[in-house]
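agent> fetching stored inputs for the glutathione docking request
agent> found them:
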Amino acid sequence: MIRFLNRSKLELDGHHLYCFPTCGACIAVRLSAWWMGIQLPTRNVLVSSGHAAELAAGGGKTQVPCLRIEDADGGVQWMYESSDIIDYLKELPSSST
Ligand SMILES: N[C@@H](CCC(=O)N[C@@H](CS)C(=O)NCC(=O)O)C(=O)O
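agent> prediction call returned; pasting tokens
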């Protein structure tokens, strides 16, 4: 974990975390990202019905946290499960963040 402390705090392009503030699994993802020095843009599904609808339509279910990942070609992946999201963030090359 120590190696992550040296990362500079940069926003991750093409990534959005669908979440809400009091969701424990969402807090785990956000804390992990913070610890890794990753600034993860968030989309609060409780304050925006638009974000909630995007999540349901794109990801197929309303569960949070969900990480929307858009690649350079415009392809989109919806990743559910806090542990999978955290593992994904850990595997990102330093140049992505
Ligand atoms: N195993 C999941 C649990 C996620 C979970 O329980 N999310 C709740 C909020 S904390 C939720 O979205 N419930 C509403 C739903 O599933 O539509 C994870 O770790 O990500």
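agent> quick read of the result: Residues 12-96 form a domain with the Glutaredoxin fold (CATH 3.40.30.10).
agent> awaiting further instructions
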